[in-house]
Structures are given as structure tokens and as C-alpha cells.
Specification:
Layout (H helix, E strand, L loop, with lengths): L19 H9 L4 H13 L7 H9 L15 H13 L5 H7 L5 H13 L6 H8 L20 H11 L4 H7 L8 H15 L2 H10 L5 H14 L5 H6 L4 H12 L17 H11 L1
Helix pairs in contact: 1-2, 2-4, 3-4, 4-6, 5-6, 6-8, 7-8, 8-10, 10-11, 10-12, 11-12, 12-14, 14-15
Length: 285
């Protein structure tokens, strides 16, 4: 779950606005990684269609180094931003480079690559994603020794499987154990993916329960996951959630753009119309 304003989706090296040509110049050079970092973000944000954009981003994605013990949070920052940008461009030709990044030792890069592959709906990513998640909450979802990160970026990988949208039995079997993960954000991502893949309101109900969670971060995640799944019976619970109106609007926009498989609630319950959702959005503005 990536929300608006998340520093992972914004540049750290900003400065004055730049042009597409300047972004390409910055990405092409390799002496100053802060310039490359911002350029990769800019090209993805602006959905650049310049013929040099895709090859330069793929080259930046390959600009990786082995992790060193003293490496800080900026480890492989350029490659991570390149992966995020490639996911926004919608070009299937970026998939092989992203699949290679999914095997990198840097879990932050694996996370960015998984989200990008989900954005691209890359069916070829299903097998490697399932392989990395197959050990379940006790393996892929286990806490690493000495820090708060999990063995795999499970949240991003689960969401990617939902976004890719192929409900093979083996995919469902990999996702379901994470519904019982100890971390609410992982449970939310698993329920979102299962709701997207099956349309079963059981998973929507579990997301609604998370909307009542005492932690704001969890409520935010559930909002975004319900919106991403496009589950229209969540309209009123979303509007009542104790969270920012800006996030509620993003979630409601997801309901407007819902896939048919996720629109329906429990049998016999009336589902909100597009007009109902738009009226709710107006009330929040």
C-alpha cells in the first residue's frame, strides 16, 4: 500500500522544475546519483514517452551494487526509483528487467519491482512471486533478525498478485495463509488480493473490520486496499472511516473504476451506483 505523500514515491533531490530533456540528461550521466534519482522519478511521474526513456530507466534499474553493512536507506535508490517509474509507463518490454530485479538481494528493490510488475499486469511474474511467498507467514512473512523488516516484501508481492488478476488455484493457495499474518498491513494486502481474484465478499468484510482498527496506518491501508479492489459495498464504511478525506477520495475513485468481479456484495444487498459514489465524493470535497 503506497499512499499519496509517501516519501518512497517522491524525490529527495528536488530543486527547480525540469524538462523532459533535462531529466534524460540527468539520468544518462552516472556521476551524481541524486540527479539520476530525481530524473527517474520525474520520467515516471510525467509518463514520459520519449524513445530514450525506457532504455535509460532499464539501464538505471541495472545500476545496482551488493549491499554493504554500512549501507543506509539510500542503498540502490536509483534502481528502486527506476523500477517504480517503469511500472508507471505501462510498457511490457520493461518486464524482463523487472523480473531480474525481483531476484535481487535488496528487498527494497524487490518490493519496487513487485509493485511495478503488478502495475504492468505481468503474468510472467506470477511464478516468481508465488515462489517467494510459498513458505508462508512463517517463512517469507517472518521477522528478520535485528530489524523490523520481513524476509520478503510480502505486502507488495501480495498486492502484485491481486493486480495481475489471474485466479489460478495455486495463486489463491499461496495468498490465503497471509490472511492470518500477525501484521494487519499484511492481512489487509492478502484480503485485497483475494477480493480482487475471487470477488468473494468474505474478504471485503475482513477489510471492513480493519477500517475499525485503532491504528491510523492500518485504517489508511484498508481504505486504499478497498479502493484498489473496487468493492462498492464499502462506500459508506469508507466515508465513516477516521482517516483523511484525501485518502477517502482516492479510495472512492477506485470504487468508481471498479472491475465487475469486485463490485458485488452479499446476495440481496443493494450495491451503490456510480451516482451514489460520486455524490459521496462531492460531500467529502
Amino acid at each position: 500500500m503506497v499512499v499519496a505523500g509517501d516519501p518512497a514515491s517522491s524525490p529527495v533531490a528536488g530543486g527547480a522544475p525540469i524538462t523532459e530533456e533535462e531529466a534524460l540528461v540527468r539520468l544518462r550521466q552516472t556521476d551524481d546519483q541524486s540527479l539520476q534519482y530525481y530524473a527517474a522519478w520525474w520520467l515516471g511521474k510525467m509518463r514520459s514517452r520519449h524513445p530514450d526513456t525506457l532504455p535509460l530507466l532499464c539501464a538505471a534499474l541495472g545500476q545496482r551494487q551488493p549491499r554493504e553493512p554500512a549501507a543506509g536507506v539510500e542503498h540502490n535508490a536509483v534502481a528502486r526509483n527506476a523500477a517504480r517509474a517503469l511500472g508507471k509507463l505501462g510498457e511490457a518490454s520493461a518486464v524482463p528487467a523487472l523480473l531480474a530485479a525481483l531476484e535481487d538481494e535488496d528487498d527494497g528493490l524487490r518490493e519496487a519491482a513487485a509493485r511495478a510488475l503488478g502495475d504492468l499486469g505481468a503474468a510472467s511474474a506470477i511464478a516468481p512471486l508465488c515462489r517467494r511467498l510459498a513458505s508462508g507467514p512463517a517463512g517469507a512473512g517472518a521477522l528478520r533478525t535485528g530489524n523490523s523488516r520481513l524476509e520478503e516484501p510480502c505486502e507488495a508481492m501480495l498486492e502484485a498478485l491481486g493486480e495481475i488478476g489471474q485466479a489460478h488455484p495455486e495463486v489463491i493457495a499461496v495468498i490465503r495463509p497471509f490472511v492470518a499474518h500477525e501484521r494487519p498491513l499484511i492481512r489487509s494486502a492478502a484480503c485485497r488480493a483475494l477480493l480482487q481474484l475471487t470477488g468473494d465478499p468474505l474478504w471485503g468484510d475482513q477489510l471492513l473490520e480493519l477500517l475499525e482498527h485503532p491504528q491510523l496506518q492500518v485504517r489508511r491501508a484498508s481504505l486504499m486496499d478497498l479502493g484498489a479492489a473496487g468493492w462498492r459495498p464499502a462506500l459508506q464504511p469508507i466515508c465513516r472511516t477516521l482517516a483523511e478525506n484525501s485518502l477517502k477520495l482516492i479510495a472512492l475513485r477506485g470504487l468508481v473504476e471498479a472491475r465487475a468481479s469486485c463490485e458485488q456484495g452479499h446476495p440481496g444487498d443493494p450495491d451503490p451506483s456510480i451516482a451514489d459514489i460520486l455524490a459521496a465524493m462531492d460531500d467529502l470535497l
